[in-house]
Amino acid sequence: MNEIAITSGRMNQGVDPVLHAWTWEIPLYLYLGGLVAGILFFSAFFYLRHRENVFPAAIKIAPLFTPFMLAIGLLALFLDLTHKLYFWRLYTTIRWESPMSWGAWTLMIIFPLSIIWSAFWVKDVFPRWDWKIPFVEKSIDFLARYKAYFAWALIAFSAILGMYTGILLSAFNARPFWNTSILGPLFLVSGLSTGAAFILLISRSEQERHRFSQIDTFLIGTEIFLIIHLFMGFLASTSVHIHAAEMFLGGPYTAVFWTLVVGLGLLVPMFIEIMELRGVKVPVVIPAVLVLFGGLMLRFIVVDAGQSSRWLYKFMEQLIF
Amino acid sequence: MRYAMAIDTKRCVGCADCVVACQTENNVPEGFCRDWIVEETIGAFPELQLEIRSERCNHCDDSPCVRCCPTGASHYEEGGVVLVNHDECIGCKACIASCPYDARFVHPEGYVDKCTFCIHRVREGKNPACVEVCPTHAMIFGDLDDRNSEISKALRTRKHKTLIPEAGTDPHVFYLL
Amino acid sequence: MGKKLNRREFIKIAGMGAGGLAVASSFLKPVSLFGQSVSREKLIASTFSEATPTYCEICFWKCAGWVHKKDGRPWKIVGNPDDTHSNGRFCPRGTGGLGAYTDPDRLKTPLIRVEKRGKQVFKEATWDEAFDYIAEKMNGIKEKYGPECMALFTHGSGGGYFKNLIKAYGSNNIAAPSYAQCRGPRAEAYLLTYGEGIGSPERTDIENTKCLVLIGSHIGENMHNGQVQEFTRAHMNGATVITVDPRFSTAASKSKYWLPIKPATDLALLLAWINVIIEEELYDKEYVKKYTYGFEALKKAVKGNTPEWAYPITTIKPHIIRETAREMAAAAPAVIIHPGRHVTWYGDDTQRVRAGAILNALLGSWGRRGGFYAPSKAHVPKPEHPPYPKPQKGWRDAFPDKYPLANLALSSGICDATIPSTTDACSIKGWIVYGTNLMQTLPQPQKTIKAIQNLELLVAIDIMPSEITGWADVVLPECTYLERYDDLRISQGRVPSIALRAPAFEPQYNTKPAYWMAVQLAKKLGLSAYFPYEKIEDYLEYRLKAVGSSLAEMKKIGVKNLPLEQELYFLNGEDYEFATPSGKIELYSDTLAEHGFDPIPRYTAHEEPQEGYYRLLYGRAPMHSFGRTTNNPLLTELKLENEVWIHPKVAREWGIENGEYIRLENQDKVVSNKVKAKVTERIRHDCVYMVHGFGHTQKQMRRSLNRGASDTQLITRVNVDPIMGGTGMRVNFVTFRKEVA
User: Fold this and answer.
1) ipTM, 2 decimals?
2) CB–CB of A318 and C637 under 8 A?
3) pLDDT, tens only, C591-617
4) What is the extent of the structural domain holding C344?
């Protein structure tokens, strides 16, 4: 095995000894983006299936949280920028090759959509709500006539948003652990799963909970399948990808990933949900919180591990600065 | 015109003069560097080989940093030199994550910084500072499109490689073996 | 070699005329010394309006260059293309020289100690107070013990003024650690063999050589600029490089042969090579016959030193020893057994270096192209002053029967002479320490401290608050080389040359140039007559005028190459009288025999490490000059701390991981500061290696404080060379201690 040493003392902050360009802001942003995508998807989807009365939490209540979640996510994204005063530069150009660019534009679209969509349901959730300003009231009433179109748009853009959170990372060829097309679907499914879990958490309806437990169980199953697929893909690929996978198969990320994400975040809640579907009484809050927590951990670990994987000087434990 | 650099690993002794020259020429902030020295040892005692390389931004033809930049701050200049426009950079760091060579960093002033091939010197007809200072003349800078340039000749006559070509970025810093 | 010139063409290019007329024209025309054309931008760089000429003070190579300012602020330093030390290209330390100027930890004002010595409690003083204090003490020492009881330790350009001062005062105790702790054995070995030394920059014709043999010389890691450049040129020209080193050094990686010798056995290998060269009749018969003395005795002496004999000692296989010897012979006379530079290793160093000198003689490389050339030096007269008083005694009197062949004062000897003992005829009472951090440059720091505690006066002149300044009674802060004039650089080379150092910046803080200090101190001591010029500009003007130049001219050109006055190589069949007793190259030395030493080098085994211990080797990194640069802001960025190199098998035995911090403990239970382990195949299993100059303990040097380990601290034992008093320092053994986090 080759010995590699950087002998000129390079210690660039954020890059050495291991890349950590992104710390908590980006994973939180990706997480909230996925969660919002999940919530809005279910809300729009079941609205189009006319389940307003059956799934009130999913269609009406959950979306009310999304503008705030997005705002926090965007704030996190903004905080991550190191040249903040130039933030507006994002919206002076569209660069199709840059996931960061079209992500910014997707958010530009989905953020107002989420506000409008939430506005449609405010009065259903808070019957005594008064918009105060007649113009706002009128506008909402006007737009509400096209609810179905909004729902279709939401389905499309939430899918894009959900995928985007994964593709943002998988577009980085330079980081072998991110460089897999599974990451898009995985983050989308994880986003949908956390969305379902969020709905489970706030739902008061037995029927709705039952349905979303089913959905979530299915999504968790899909996620596990994708994770297995992810590692099989890596192990069948080049040495750098194998090495990236090894970080999780005996390497530094093994414990956190398999206990926090796969164990606590997927297997345990799936088991509980299956038990519940079979009639065992378990407080639904437990699996829901676990799924939400697991999703957050997934983003943190993937963002961190991706930055630890590299092409050059790939066996970083050999690198002495 | 296609600017490129060739580093002669036979000549390089890894003294890091290129690194200091870059620091003073470009006023690189303390704690950061745009170029660095790598020593790679191959084999086991006593059958050993040592490759010493002065590394920096590879000014790739297919630069992931330019592609992933959401604002166009990272761009190609004349001769294929990859530069960052400071007042278009928002500091999203996507380019840092996208670079397989870890050649970029966030300047303390917020924008992303890296090797510029000393384009300000090149435009005056001079060599980049690192090339100019190298005591063992281990570095060559020049135009690949000019068949008679020193670098074209070196690449025609000497065995050479680039770093991780499999990352698919078409790097333009060559290592003469 | 005082023959007439015959290489007219060479002279025409190189000579820039003492008369001064050639200077301007050669400056404008893009020509250079070695036939490569100087590019246009280099000339532009050297005529840059805000550029000041200097020669570098970061190491002893003293490359000449230009200091550039941008918008009135320090910008960069670049090499002077007319300078043969650098050929226009500085090494990293020279390029990073600005860091010496910008270092915020510099000494800023004169200091006088107010508490017990070593407690480091000082008061800030004016220059006048400081000089009064020193003068009073020096006068006291003169009265009580005699002026011979003052000593000067010096390293660097400003030392000359203090040498003048201390000689005028009446003492000859002037020592530089660069002798007894570095290249002293080399000087004496070549003097004994050839009647001449190697000098600096070395007279090795590396760029023309066909075979270069390096024994522990890590060219490339020692960034002796011109030499590294020549090494690269030779390597690219296909010269065979043979590197003998327990470590796979940078030079070893560029060698055709790497001989990973067992440490401390180099002399056995050299004798085996001599044996092969003689037995296989590969030596230059004509040359040996014409120029050498004692060949038959040598032949007899090395009869038993066959490669087979050397194999178990050195671990180098006999066929490799033969093959490499034949390579040398094939390249002869364009072959160099490099004399090394830092050669104080095992205490028999003069003999070891002499073995290399003998090998060079057998191959006929001395005075031959690709071997050793005859260096030239400019003759620039100094202003006259009254004769120095004659000292009645000197450091040598403290050691009446020892080190008979030491030609220079031993810094370790002066240190020893400061520690009172019954045999001391000359006990030293006062030290002036100029530009050398004795705590790191002398081995056995405990002994140095003991000596210091016996002093009545210790003056330290330095730029940085190095460890020695902490022990001083008076600290005089010098300004950096970028802020002062200094004496002309007049060093040997293929062509004689002079270089000017002019101040690029005003001195920062309350710092002053050494010249000014020496002049002021001379005034207080009533020795002003020895400094005919109060201002250094006038002194320089005097010297420059004598060679047909002026300060104004030198400020424009920085370096002036003068006409060659002698041949570089022997002419074919030239008669030559060497400055040895026999007038020939002495393969057999009667001088050594007279003093009871081996007239021909003989191998004796050295002590070996015990189980679990490893020989401590040390060397350099290209970006630092010993401990002098380890606080330089630009250079610490390149290397903040040293590592200890450990073979993987050894590391595995001790459970040491690459990059882990450990401590070293030597045979005398001295434990080092924590140091990073570099686990590497590039070193033998029976030794460890680290770069010298780290592990500073001085709090005021904030960047370097506690960074890495100090090899000096672990060098508690030395083997003293009985011939000239050099302190062999590679005789210490260390073991590992796990660092508890």
Assistant:
1) 0.95
2) no
3) 999 999 999 999 999 999 999 999 999
4) 182-374
